Amino acid sequence: MSKVNPNPLPLVFEQPKGRGKPPRHLADLDLAARVDAVEGLGLPGFRAKQLSRHYFTRLVDDPADMSDLPADVRDAMVDGLMPRLIEPVRTMEADRGTTRKTLWKLFDGALVESVLMRYPDRATICVSSQAGCGMACPFCATGQGGLQRNMSTAEIIEQVVDGARAMHRGEIPGGPGRLSNVVFMGMGEPMANYPAVIGAVRRMVDESPAGLGMSARNITVSTVGLVPRINQLASEGIPVTLALSLHAPDDELRDELVPINTRFKVAEAVEAAWEYARTTKRRVSIEYAMIRDINDQAWRADMLGDLLRSYGDWGWVHVNLIPLNPTPGSIWTASDPADEREFVRRLEAKGIPTTVRDTRGQEIDGACGQLAAVEG
């Protein structure tokens, strides 16, 4: 393996020059700011709650269904505060329709993806937070394409609301239901777009009509290890689940698999994750893509187990092994099942709770970034 460029990556990516901002949407605003925006349209402020209730609670997107709003102001309110931010380009289904992947086009033509997955006991949507990604992890389809731009809070929320609507309307096999979980594991590094991501989290947990009224415990924010942002998230008072994408327990390998490791080393990232668990009382998930003959050796399982166990055995951590979903033409491929089982056995022998992620959607370009790469 060739060495990566040692130059440090930026902590937060600024919007690339030449990229305009998406139109203002009520999901970008808290309830007080929505009142100001509605009054700015020449309408009474109480209409902001009505419009918010339609969007976040009733999950309505057609002005004709907003019967409590006067007919002569509906279109103006929707045009002013509910512009279309994402348009579906392509939708693919797997697992008898219970997994649905959507490729979205943003207002400026950028492409992002979301995946809605229905299980017997829950429904989860995996959302994107950036168009592309600047973290440059070589085994990741999104990382291969580079960063185009950050997404806005509302662009993120639109993915979530679309999934909630699909469940509410019974579009996913199993009948009408409720979207229960959100994971920031789609395109992009969430912590590199922190203001928009934390804004989206707040809209998710805000009670109706301010937001979707979801439980923070059912929201997972992933990161490759931007330590200052992990620390900042711990101070927000919103106990979301933190997922640290580690992928290697040693700096030599992780420098190559996750280039931000040249700035924040394994020990620093794990220390920050442990502090997050200690502060929030929420168990951290360690994400670990199993890559054949690269990071799946038994001795690396032992090293990972020893590292995590060094912080104590009070249940602060859980390891989530991810069978790699290879991208077309990639040299990277999933681990042999026997090696995967041995990895699990070694971690569990050290008292580390470990699971292997249920892999869905391989037949529909399930790895984030694959569909966008093909369409782009």
Automatic annotation (TrEMBL):
Q: What else is known?
A: Reaction proceeds by a ping-pong mechanism involving intermediate methylation of a conserved cysteine residue.
EC nos:
2.1.1.192
What this chain does, per the entry, is described as: Specifically methylates position 2 of adenine 2503 in 23S rRNA and position 2 of adenine 37 in tRNAs.
Q: What class of enzyme is it?
A: transferase
**Could you tell me one molecular function GO term of this UniProt entry?**
metal ion binding
**What are the alphabetically sorted keywords of the record?**
4Fe-4S, Cytoplasm, Disulfide bond, Iron, Iron-sulfur, Metal-binding, Methyltransferase, rRNA processing, S-adenosyl-L-methionine, Transferase, tRNA processing
- Tell me which residues make up the Radical SAM core domain: 119-363
The record's annotation in Pfam families points to: Radical_SAM
Does the keyword Electron transport feature in the UniProt annotation?
no
The family database entries (InterPro entries) matched by this protein are listed as: Aldolase_TIM, Methyltransferase_A, RNA_MTrfase_RlmN, rRNA_lsu_MTrfase_RlmN/Cfr, rSAM, rSAM_sf
What are its cofactors?
A: [4Fe-4S] cluster
Q: What is this protein called?
A: Probable dual-specificity RNA methyltransferase RlmN
Question: Binding of [4Fe-4S] cluster: at which residues?
Answer: C133, C137, C140
Q: tRNA processing among the record's keywords? A: yes
Which Gene3D superfamilies does the record match to this protein? 1.10.150.530, Aldolase class I (3.20.20.70)
Q: Reaction(s) catalyzed by this protein?
A: adenosine(37) in tRNA + 2 reduced [2Fe-2S]-[ferredoxin] + 2 S-adenosyl-L-methionine = 2-methyladenosine(37) in tRNA + 5'-deoxyadenosine + L-methionine + 2 oxidized [2Fe-2S]-[ferredoxin] + S-adenosyl-L-homocysteine; adenosine(2503) in 23S rRNA + 2 reduced [2Fe-2S]-[ferredoxin] + 2 S-adenosyl-L-methionine = 2-methyladenosine(2503) in 23S rRNA + 5'-deoxyadenosine + L-methionine + 2 oxidized [2Fe-2S]-[ferredoxin] + S-adenosyl-L-homocysteine
Write out the annotated subcellular location. Answer: Cytoplasm
SUPFAM superfamilies referenced in this protein's UniProt entry, alphabetically: Radical SAM enzymes
Active site feature: E113 (proton acceptor), C368 (s-methylcysteine intermediate)
HAMAP family listed in its UniProt record: RNA_methyltr_RlmN
Task: Give the top-rank taxon of the lineage listed in the UniProt record for this protein.
Answer: Bacteria
